[in-house]
Write a structure and sequence with these properties.
The protein contains 13 helices and 15 strands. By secondary structure, the protein is an alpha/beta fold. Strands 3-4-2-13-14-1-15 form a seven-stranded parallel sheet. A six-stranded mixed sheet has the order 6-7-8-9-10-11, covered by helices on one side. Strand 7 and strand 8 form a beta hairpin.
Length: about 400
């Protein structure tokens, strides 16, 4: 791991073995830092992803890390992804559009990688930047915020909320730790400051900010018209009794509208389109996991499409391949980018494979060298190698205790 980072090439998928979880994060940070590249780290599931995101702060605390989670709702559900998840996704996509080649790590999962996304052109057109000194009426700003999916509240507390109080406009943008307070003089933005939502105390001044959409569906005249036409083409006259159709036609946000994403845009994108030049590091079981996810989506589609009773009409639902990448399509897209699979096991059955020279430390058992004290066993193990040994503890207290035990030995 101390040698030059790997160079991955598009068209071939390299298989890397003997690479345990922490080594995978170390490999990703080395590529991002030394090759000056974006790295998309694709974990098997949310638990593995969370562990990797915690570890990157140890190996490269200065490296930018973005989180791109999957939706926290089931396929074809009647609810939308939570505001927190939507905010994270839109923030990450906007950062990739702004600087696609910046050295960073984008943490995601296989299920998130399979989801189709709004086209990048939509996101670019839906974002707009305001700076101190700009002139915009509060009515126009409010209409723009509502179109972008923000909710009006009496007091801003969560991402995607805004509040109007006389000449003051409070706004909580996705991807921000603090909300913004805009102070108007007439229609001019006199000042922009960050503030804590709990104490309501203002802090540092901000010169400019960018308003991002809160949903992957941005309701505009174009998207609404495209939805109405596409809906009737797919589902015929069922629009007459569908609240979704009527709410979208009236420019209202409807719960679960993201599950009809293909109806709003002429075409959809994927994460590969937002980060085409990145290195992709995937869990070694990605194909199996992708197949299982797509089969589950097919099951949900069948359940949603079939009427519950013989006299009931089926609910409108789009085929799974319009919303998700099937395993075969995902394979084709992975082969078109610079990618590698990461496995903790030794790989011997592939020509495009390397095994890293990493040896995990064996468990400290009392039977090691006949010692009954695990610390003494650690001491014995330390004498068997000339390499450095890293010991990580759960807390400052356990670290102090470990130091005392080691000094006693």
């Amino acid at each position: 791991m101390n040698e030059a980072p790997l160079v991955l090439r598009a068209g071939t998928v390299l298989h890397i073995g003997q690479c345990p979880a922490l080594a995978q994060v170390r490999l990703a940070t080395d590529i991002a830092k030394h090759r000056k590249l974006s790295v998309v780290f694709v974990a098997a599931d949310d638990r593995s992803l969370e562990a990797a995101m915690h570890a990157v702060g140890f190996f490269a605390p200065q490296l930018e890390a973005l989180h791109f989670p999957a939706w926290d709702c089931l396929p074809y559900d009647r609810v939308s992804p939570s505001i927190r998840i939507s905010a994270l996704r839109m923030h990450t996509l906007s950062q990739l559009l702004e600087s696609p080649d910046k050295p960073r790590i984008i943490f995601t999962t296989i299920s998130a990688l399979m989801q189709k996304l709004p086209p990048s052109e939509m996101l670019r057109s839906a974002c707009f930047t305001l700076k101190r000194g700009d002139s915009i009426s509060r009515d126009v700003l409010q209409k723009s915020l509502m179109k972008a999916g923000y909710r009006r509240a009496s007091k801003v507390m969560e991402h995607g909320e805004y509040a109007l109080r006389g000449s003051i406009v409070d706004l909580f943008l996705p991807g921000s730790d603090e909300a913004l307070r805009l102070d108007f003089f007439g229609d001019d933005i006199e000042s922009i400051k960050r503030f804590d939502t709990l104490s309501q105390r203002s802090s540092e001044a901000v010169e400019r900010f960018t308003i991002l959409p809160m949903h992957e569906v941005v309701l505009s005249e174009e998207t609404t018209a495209h939805f109405r036409t596409s809906y009737r083409e797919h589902f015929g006259n069922s629009f007459r009794d569908d609240a979704l159709y009527h709410h979208i036609s009236e420019g209202q946000i409807h719960a679960g509208m993201e599950h009809f994403l293909p109806l709003f845009y002429p075409s959809l994108s994927t994460l590969f389109d937002y980060a085409p030049s990145a290195h992709y590091l995937l869990d070694h079981a990605w194909k199996t996991i992708a197949t299982e996810h797509f089969e589950a989506a097919c099951d949900y589609y069948q359940a949603r499409s079939a009427p519950a009773l013989s006299h009931m009409a089926a609910h409108p639902a789009l085929p799974p391949d319009t919303l998700y990448l099937a395993a075969e399509k995902l394979t084709q897209m992975i082969q078109q980018v610079a990618a590698a699979t990461l496995s903790p096991f030794t790989i011997n059955d592939s020509q495009l494979a390397i095994n890293l020279p990493i040896k995990p430390v064996p468990p400290l058992k009392s039977s090691v060298a006949g010692e009954t004290n695990p610390i003494a066993a650690l001491k014995h193990q330390r004498t068997q190698t000339t390499e450095s040994m890293l010991i990580a503890c759960h807390s400052e207290g356990s670290l102090t205790r470990m130091e005392t035990l080691l000094k006693e030995q």
